[in-house]
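From the shared-data thread, chain only:
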Amino acid sequence: MNLFDKYKLGLPYNDFLQKYGTEAHRSRWQQVLAQVALTDAQTALLKQFKRKMPALCLAGAWCGDCANQCPIFEQFASVAPCIQMHFLDRDEHADVQALLQINGGNRVPVVVFLSEDGTEVARYGERTLSKFRAMMREQAGASCPTGITVGADPLLAQVSQDWLNEFERVQWMLRLSPRLRKIHND
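Structure, as C-alpha cells:
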C-alpha cells in the first residue's frame, strides 16, 4: 500500500474534526489545543524546520489518546508550516489501520512521516514514553518499581516534548538525506 496516496486522501486538522467529530469531540480537542504551551526553545526549534514534512496521522475524533495528542501536532504545524499534517479516520480506512497496527492491535494515533516525494521516513505512535511512564505509576503502583525518574512538567508538556523529539528527528533525517539534498541543492 502506498501511504503517500493515503496521505493525499487525508484531511487537515479542522476539516477532519468537522467531518468525523461531534460537537463534544471538537470541544475536547479544542480544550487540549488551548493547553498546549510550547516553550520559547521549542518554538525556536520548530522555526528551524525547513524541509517539507508531510505527516499522515491515523486517528479517531472519538479517541481520548487522539484528543490528548493530535492537538500537539496542530500546534507544531502552526509554528512550522513545513509540517503538513493530514488526518485519516481509522474506521473509514481500515486497510491503513491493519497496516499500522501496534503490538498486534488497532491503536491510534499513529503518525507516518513522509518525505515531500512520498517516501516513508518513520512511524511513531499510540502513546509516548512519558504517557506510558504515567500509566505505569497509576496502574502498577509501588508493587512494580520501574526505576524511572519523572520530571516536574505536567504530562501534556512531557508528551509534547516526546512528540517534538520525533518531529525533530524526522526533520533532520529529511534535511540530511543525500537524495533530498541533491534535489534542493543544499
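The chain has one domain: 3-184.
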